[in-house]
Every structure is written in C-alpha cells, then in structure tokens.
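Hey, why these numbers?
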Amino acid sequence: MADIAFDQLDGHIWMNGEMVPWADSKIHVLSHGLHYASCVFEGQRIYGGKIFKLNEHSERLHKSAEIMDFKIPYSVEELNAACIAVMEKQNLTEGYMRPVAWRGSEQMGVAAQKTTINVAIAAWEWGSYFDPEERMKGIRLRLADYRRPDPRTAPCKAKAAGLYMICTIEKHKSEQLGYADAMMLDYRGYVAEATGANVFFVKDGVIHTPIADCFLDGITRRTVIGLAKDQGIEVVERVIMPEEMSEFTECFITGSAAEVTPVSEISDYKFTPGEISQNLLDAYMKMVRE
C-alpha cells in the first residue's frame, strides 16, 4: 500500500449496515468512544480472498463489547457477512480488515447508557507488519517501561481501544531508539507480551509462553500452539521471569498483524531464530492459505 493517510484511501467502508464511500465514513467529534475509550475492535487478515479465522474474530468482538458493557447490534453471522461484503467491495485478495464498534455522541460524560452503538468495517491492502526481508533475521525489541495492568484495574480480556494507550507510547519509544517493538512485563513483573503480539520462547526443543491471564489470549497465539502440538512440540504455558530470557535460544511473537515473527533481541537478551521458529512460520503461512 502506498504511503498515504488512511482517511485518503479509496473505496467503501461498511458502517451501521450500509456501504459508505471511504471519505464519508465519519463520526462526530463528541463521540463517547473518542473521549472515554468505549470502543472495541478486531484486526484480521485476508489471504487468497478468504478472511482467516473470521468467525473467531467476530465472536471476540461480541465478547469484548460485552465486557465493556455494551451490545453489538449485529449478530456474529451478520458481522461475518458484512466482512465478506467489504472484502469483495474492495476487491481484495490480500489485506487487512478492521471491524470496530464504539459508543456514539448522544450523551457526553462518563455515563453513556443513552448512546447508540456504532459498528464499522474497513479493509485495505497491507503487507507484512515488520520488514519481510528482516523477518527470519529476527526483530529487535526493548523492555518496556509500562506494564500490562492488573485485571482488577482494567478489562484486560477485551480487545478495547484504551488498553493500547501504553502500547503506542512504548512502540514510539522503541522505534525512536532503533528497535522494532517493545516487550512488556505485567503488573507482577512477569514477561507478558509485545505491544500488539503474544510471545513464545524455545529451550531444549520445548516452547514456553506466558499464561494469558492479564492480556489477550490471541487467536494467532492459540493457532500457533495448535500447530506446534501437531508437530509434536511440547508447549508449556507458565509464569516466565525476565531473567529467564537468558536461558532461551529462540523467541518469536505472534498476532494477526505480526503473523509469526522471530525475535533476535530483547534488550540485553539475545536469541537465534532457528528451526522451530522457521517451521512454525512456514506452517502458519501454509495454514492461512488452505
């Protein structure tokens, strides 16, 4: 995709049940979702004219909204159909899709019980989240300053807009320092995730990954765990302390945007992208096109 502002792209966006010209898909500046982050979203990939794990994404959008105390006014089946319609309207065979739901502008203030729930779905061409030529070399991460919050302080099981404030801050810091991304610890000091992707480590042929108890148990995360087990690789979900990273030989992150991306460095900890990372990357890229 050309380097152009997203509001300047061509095409249509599905918005509240209708296809709207891209430039006309606007919201009011006093929308509750903008001021108070009462907004949930999904990110899903289009491969070969099919939306990968579409139903799981639509179900998660509903669940996120429920956690945020509002109801999506379209069923999972209706969302699925709308996503497919957008893909076809945009004539996309490869790309990225963003369903989003937010509270409208009928009420301003913390309370928002009178607001309308709006839903939009946009899709566009989008390649690798990280430089594809650098992928198997492994990207470089730094340890973030902010931490993933305690579940008692934030709706961490929702894919909610407000949870990404600290991710943007840390992503910017990382890029300014020459890194691709940041690795975040959780509120207890355990290894958690990158700013928009789950993390896996390899030691002695076994995969280790943090327990997803205060961050999203990603759809790609679950998919890759399944692929690893299909290959006979043991996967251990457990608490991982930062200092343990010195013991791991491989590291990779997963997500709909990131797909499967090897990591070569997290601050002072070094990794060598190897056979397990490569095999899971290959298996994942094959699966999304089946």
About this structure: The chain has a mean pLDDT of 96. The two ends are 24 Å apart (CA to CA). The chain has six helices and 16 strands. The chain has two domains: 6-124, 132-287.
